[in-house]
Description:
Layout: E1 3-7, E2 10-12, E3 18-25, E4 34-39, E5 45-51, E6 58-60, E7 68-73, E8 78-83, E9 92-98, E10 112-113, E11 117-121
Parallel strand pairs: 2-11
Antiparallel strand pairs: 1-3, 3-8, 4-5, 4-9, 5-6, 7-8, 9-10, 9-11
Amino acid sequence: EVQLVESGGGLVQPGGSLRLSCAASGFTFSSYHMSWVRQAPGKGLEWVSAINSGGDSTSYAESVKGRFTISRDNAKNTLYLQMNSLKPEDTAVYYCAKFPMGYGLGYRVYDYWGQGTQVTVSS
């Protein structure tokens, strides 16, 4: 059974940092591209970032470029999102999502999602 479990969310002041983690199990993590997607209160899903299976190719939404860093540790079956210089508009539930096999990083197609972790940026 595929499982994706996010952690690391919380309340942080503007300008602060958080590191999200997504522990994966039930599939060969190192074979699949992964992504972070967020949903702000009252809004739709917003793609944040993606990383290829080997961890050497990444992409970011313009809204987070230069502030967020996606990474993965295939030995630990874990996906990360380092978030710096956080802004109130980054407040959202953050989900990790798994690509189906055969889809490149340019696609926004996912077959499994985690339960999400809440990030709140407020003073």
